[in-house]
Write a structure and sequence with these properties.
The protein contains 12 helices and 16 strands. It is an alpha/beta fold. The strands form 2 sheets. It has a 10-stranded mixed sheet with strand order 14-13-12-11-7-10-9-8-15-16. It has a 6-stranded parallel sheet with strand order 3-2-1-4-5-6, sandwiched between helices. This is Gfo/Idh/MocA family protein.
Length: 426
């Protein structure tokens, strides 16, 4: 079976629920006064997935949509009217108008990556809870600020790692924690797939329906070229980190959930420059050294049994055996015997009601959900550090207590960036 899964296929499948990521509760009538009033900010492919998922939850009322591309906004408003006939949801081109509304309880954020943190922080300050897409933030400093503001304003946050809700990941965690392969000393992660060749820059006047200056927001100013906007923005380091950043949280999640790597000591990355005008890595290999654990990321499957035909995966090596998994499958090997489960290890983790329902439940109970911000920040931080090592082309030493590189001013300069003053909103 070919396990290769690119991002467009993932969006298509997850939208249809084909991966089993969105588990809906029993449909029941909920009094309007008991409904969570939600607004969706960012209405590209994943933003429309958010809208589709939450529109099916009886405890949710979608009251506002926002996108700074008028075409995206108009098409999403029409789609919402098809999903929820009679909806009175209002459309906005500036998310700040949504945050000004006192009648909105929570927002989902599916903007380009470089806007994730500021929108979430401003939402916390406005008294809104947040369901935010991956990655958590653009850099390390943003993640720190998000956690501080979440705690200060006593908000709820769920990272959109939809796969986290699936039974397979739950069971992998139980098996690893239950000692199926003993103490884990090495983990290998990978995601295949090359970014597109975006060709030369095609600078032109932005479309009249797009607020390009706001789209750039805190990022450095650039003349408009279609390659930098919407879906392909992710291949530019001003906004994202390529295929690596796009998929890190999908598969690193199972590692942080199952073994909680601690005390990162060093990170060393090498990679291949992309074709065309993009600058995020075409491929990347990263070696991380944690306390008692070595973790490796590659853009090709590692040379281990069962990995070759999987486009994404995690391979855990323990002192008693190995465990290989991807989104929907797993293989445990102990003493040469390959199995899909170890029945003697009990099911100890409560299964998710669905990633979006888990967020709704947490908002109502005022508790933190499964993919909460504190957890997501620890899981996301090594991703940022790997890209910094790639950009500098050298191994970097890390102080986990101070969350800074050791005696390296240049590397520490990449832990945050100065926003364009007009769009420094927090």
């Amino acid at each position: 079976m070919n396990h290769l899964l690119n991002r467009r296929e993932f969006l298509k499948q997850s939208s249809a629920g084909a991966l089993g990521l969105t588990l809906l509760p029993n449909l029941r009538k909920v009094a309007p006064s008991d409904r969570l009033r939600i607004a969706h900010i960012g209405l590209g492919g994943m933003g429309n997935n958010h809208m589709g998922w939450f529109a099916k939850l009886p405890e949710v009322e979608i009251v506002a949509l926002c996108d700074l591309d008028q075409d995206h906004l108009n098409s999403s408003l029409k789609r919402l009217s098809d999903l929820n006939p009679g909806t009175k949801s209002q459309g906005y081109s500036d998310f700040r108008h949504i945050l000004d509304r006192k009648d909105i309880d929570a927002v989902t954020v599916a903007t380009p990556d470089h806007w994730h943190a500021q929108v979430a922080i401003l939402a916390f300050q406005a008294g809104k809870d947040v369901y935010g897409e991956k990655p958590l933030s653009f850099d390390v400093r943003e993640g720190q600020k998000m956690l501080k503001q979440l705690n200060r304003h006593k908000r709820v946050f769920q990272l959109g790692t939809q796969i986290h809700a699936g039974d397979n990941y739950h069971r992998v965690v139980e098996l690893i924690r239950g000692g199926a392969i003993g103490k884990v000393h090495t983990v290998r992660l990978w995601k295949t797939g090359l970014p597109p060749d975006l060709g030369p820059a095609n600078y032109q006047t932005p479309p009249a329906t797009l607020n390009w200056d706001m789209w750039l927001g805190p990022a450095p100013y650039s003349l408009y070229t279609p390659q930098r906007c919407h879906f392909t923005y992710r291949y530019f380091l001003d906004y994202s980190g390529g295929v690596f950043q796009d998929f890190w949280s999908h598969i690193a999640d199972i590692v942080w959930w199952s073994i909680s790597p601690k005390n990162l000591k060093s990170v060393s990355a090498t990679g291949e420059a992309p074709d065309g005008i993009a600058d995020a890595p075409k491929s990347i290999s990263i070696d991380y050294e944690f306390e008692g654990l070595k973790l490796h990321w590659t853009s090709v499957p590692p040379d281990v049994p069962g990995a070759a035909n999987r486009g994404i995966g995690a391979y855990f090596e323990g002192d008693k055996g190995t465990l290989l998994c991807d989104y929907n499958s797993r293989e445990i090997t102990v003493n040469g015997v390959v199995m899909t489960d170890v029945p003697e290890i009990a099911k100890s983790i409560q299964r998710s009601p669905g990633h979006q329902q888990n967020f709704v439940d947490a908002v109502k109970a005022r508790t933190q959900p499964e993919s909460n911000l504190e957890y997501a920040r620890q899981m996301t931080m090594p991703m940022h550090l790997g890209l910094i090592s790639y950009r500098l082309g050298r191994k970097l030493e890390w102080n986990p207590r101070k969350e800074k590189f050791v005696h390296d001013r240049e590397a520490n300069g990449y832990l945050s960036r100065e926003y364009r003053s007009k769009w420094d909103l927090t």
